[in-house]
Inverse folding.
C-alpha cells in the first residue's frame, strides 16, 4: 500500500511505513485524516489546527446552534480534508479552542475563539474584539476567510437558512498578541486568523528526511537555523512553511522551488555567506560583534554577500525576536 501524506503531498517511503509497526489499515486511517505525520524512524507526530480552522468550527457551530446545541463539528480545510473539532455552542454563540498537536512553539495553543451568529439574508463575516487589524483591515487572511465562509455555507444549508452575520472574536486576543510579533509587522489589537492548509505542522526539527520534500513542495518557505529562529519565523511569516535547516542553508536553497526567505540568528547565516567576516575585526564571534556594535558595517557587508549568494530575502534576528537586519526582497 503506497501512502501519501494528504496535507503536504509527500510520498512516504516504504521503509518508514515498515518502521511504524502498525497494521497498514490503521496507519492509513491515521495518515489519511491529515492529523498525523509519519517520521523516518516510524514514529508519529500529531498535527494541530490553525486559527482559521478553529474559527471556521466556531462559526459553523454558531449558525447551527441557533436551532440546537452543538458539541462537535466537522469543517472543510484548504487542504481538502475534513477537520473534526470540539465546540461548545448554544443559542447562536459558539466557542472552540485551538489544538496545536506536537508543535513546541505555537503561542496560540489553547486559545479560545468565539463566534456569534444572527440570521440575515446574506453571509457577512465580521472581526470582533481580539482579532488584530492593519490600517483598519481585519487580520483574517484570505485563505481562512474562504474556509470560514465555506463552513458557514454548510451550516446554512443544513439549517435551511438563507444567510447569517457571523462575528468572530478572541477574548484573550489582545493580551496574547503581545507574545507574537504582530505589532512589529503593523498588526495591532489582537492576533491574526491564519492558515493555508488548515493544519499546523508539528515542530519540524523532528521531520528529518522529510525536510527536503517539504521544502520542494512548499509555495512559500522560510529556512531557519535554530530553535529561536524557528519560533520567531513562525510569528513573522505565518503563511510560510518554516523549516529548521541548521547550517545546511545551501542544501535547503537547492531543494526550494517556491518563494524563499532565510531567517534566523545572524551567526550561522552570516558565517555561511562570509566565512572570514571576523578576520581582523577584533571579535571572536558574530554575536559578540552584534552585542558590542550592532551597526557595524561588517554585518551589512556579510548580509549583502548572503543576499548575493542566495538570491533571496535574508532576515537577521536578535535573540528577543526583533529584527537586526532585513534585506527586503532582492531587486
Amino acid at each position: 500500500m503506497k501512502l501519501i501524506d494528504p496535507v503536504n503531498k509527500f510520498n512516504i517511503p516504504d521503509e518508514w511505513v515498515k518502521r511504524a509497526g502498525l497494521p497498514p489499515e490503521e496507519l492509513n486511517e491515521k495518515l489519511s485524516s491529515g492529523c498525523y505525520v509519519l517520521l523516518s524512524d516510524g514514529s508519529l507526530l500529531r498535527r494541530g489546527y490553525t486559527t482559521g480552522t478553529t474559527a471556521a468550527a466556531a462559526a459553523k457551530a454558531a449558525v447551527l446552534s441557533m436551532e440546537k446545541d452543538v458539541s462537535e463539528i466537522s469543517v472543510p480545510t484548504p487542504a481538502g480534508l475534513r477537520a473534526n473539532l470540539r465546540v461548545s455552542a448554544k443559542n447562536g454563540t459558539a466557542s472552540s479552542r485551538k489544538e496545536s498537536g506536537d508543535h513546541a512553539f505555537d503561542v496560540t495553543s489553547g486559545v479560545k475563539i468565539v463566534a456569534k451568529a444572527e440570521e440575515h439574508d446574506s453571509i457577512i463575516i465580521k472581526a470582533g474584539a481580539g482579532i488584530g487589524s492593519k490600517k483598519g483591515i481585519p487580520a483574517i487572511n484570505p485563505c481562512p476567510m474562504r474556509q470560514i465562509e465555506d463552513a458557514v455555507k454548510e451550516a446554512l444549508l443544513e439549517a435551511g437558512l438563507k444567510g447569517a452575520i457571523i462575528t468572530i472574536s478572541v477574548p484573550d486576543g489582545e493580551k496574547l498578541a503581545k507574545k507574537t510579533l504582530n505589532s512589529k509587522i503593523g498588526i495591532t489589537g489582537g492576533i491574526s486568523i491564519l492558515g493555508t492548509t488548515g493544519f499546523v505542522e508539528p515542530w519540524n526539527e523532528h521531520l528529518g528526511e522529510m525536510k527536503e520534500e517539504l521544502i520542494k513542495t512548499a509555495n512559500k518557505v522560510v529556512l531557519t537555523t535554530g530553535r529561536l529562529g524557528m519560533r520567531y519565523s513562525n510569528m513573522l511569516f505565518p503563511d510560510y512553511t518554516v523549516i529548521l535547516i541548521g547550517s545546511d542553508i545551501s542544501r535547503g536553497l537547492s531543494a526550494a522551488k517556491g518563494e524563499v526567505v532565510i531567517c534566523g540568528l545572524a551567526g550561522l547565516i552570516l558565517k555561511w555567506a562570509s566565512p572570514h567576516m571576523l578576520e581582523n575585526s577584533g571579535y571572536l564571534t558574530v554575536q559578540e560583534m552584534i552585542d558590542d556594535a550592532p551597526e557595524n558595517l561588517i554585518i551589512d557587508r556579510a548580509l549583502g554577500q548572503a543576499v548575493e549568494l542566495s538570491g533571496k530575502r535574508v532576515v537577521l534576528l536578535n535573540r528577543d525576536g526583533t529584527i537586526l537586519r532585513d534585506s527586503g526582497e532582492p531587486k
Observations:
- The domain at 1-46 is CATH 3.30.1990.10 (CbiD-like).
- The mean pLDDT is 90.
